[in-house]
Amino acid sequence: MANYIWTLYGILTIVSFWLIFNKANEKGWKAVIPFYNIFIALKIVNRPWWWLIIFLIPGVNIFMLLILFVQLIKSFGKYDFKTLTIGMLLAPAYLLYVGVKDNFKYVGPSGSEEYRKNRKKSKSKEWTDALVFAAIAATIIRWFMIEAYTIPTSSMERSLLVGDFLFVSKLNYGPRIPNTPLAFPFAHHTMPIIKTKSYLEWIKVGYHRLPGFEKIENNDVVVFNYPMEDFRPVDKKENYIKRCLAIAGDTLEIVDRKILINGKHEKLPDKGQYRYFVKTNGQGFRPGLLHSIGISDYQQLMGELGSYVMFMTNENAEEIKNLASVTKVEPIIESANNFDSRVFPFYEELRWNMDNFGPIYIPKKGDKIEMNEANFHIYRRAIMIYENNPSLEMKNAQVFLENEPIDYYTFKMNYYWLMGDNRHNSLDSRFWGFVSEDHVVGKALFLWMSWDKDGKGINKIRWDRIFNGIH
User: Fold this and answer.
1) For the segment 20-32, what is each residue's pLDDT rounded down to a tens digit?
2) Is the separation of the CB atoms in 168 and 445 below 8 Å?
């Protein structure tokens, strides 16, 4: 459903540009060519061609596009605050309206004669108005529609790479009402340069979500707020991106690194990675070889000449195994019952680790779950922190809430289990547990840009990844 909506949005943009171009004495077909249509729109509003370069910068391009909308609307003789604000918020639908209505005439990039006179008196006012309009509209779009996001770590490789820029839809799962509406535009939780909080907590809003196009499904790639940052409001916690392995109502288990959902084996995504021990004959690897294969996440073991720990896809492992200098390639798997104190729920009696974990049930709204000793440790954080029951405690093997003994607890929200595709190098639900529905930001849709810091020259841009959908 969401894909159809975004396709319709793109078609609407092209059609509205086509009509506006014709009115501004440009050929309508120029609206069909990506980036060239932006160049023509800049020409219509008499803005420099190099603005087109700014449109290549993820996140900034949304802001610039809104400024361009303001200039286009002004070029058709409309300058009042109400019209410009409505025009940006409803674009491209409003631009289509401008294109079809006869009473909208193209009056030039600086507007009418009256507008030119006013502009001479206050040249900065045009830019001030445009920036204010764009800031308001961009904030609303970022809150409720779509947001740019950058992949900062290798936890999702090789499905998503460090340096990928993507767009995240708030509409798919339904946009959240901001918990902290008093915030500086475009800054998530920290102000640039001065490094202070970018938001005020004078007004706090509880969790509310508008209707979405779809529900979270197994294997969706989801952006969410990192659950462990209890010192920040939910909407200002750091953004993370992982794959949703289990949804509310599922039972998840990991057996020798294999994921089981409701007892059924969940195949690793094609570009997902595991950890391997790789031993060579001492020669190691020539410079650039691993990068060319697609292996970027590895460490050479100290004191063991030619030995490595590599995070690779199954395909990469086969390629490495066939190299003449390689003598051994074997998976590294934590043994069952080998307790890892870093792993959720940090309860030694369960003896869980990242490769042998569970079974664990993912709560859904309305579930009534027994509160025994093991379940207390598994669900304690969800009940105390996410569902705001700080009085929860266990005394003498009995669970108490508000100083009253309870044998069952009924959950108020849906929960999810999210993990990185780079299974052995991902800080995910295995280390902090459930993600509650109020922490879900949106669905990752497609890549806008991909930047390889290790590439050279024009190859710093991963051209084959641009505009790829995320699966």
Assistant:
1) 999 999 998 998 9
2) yes
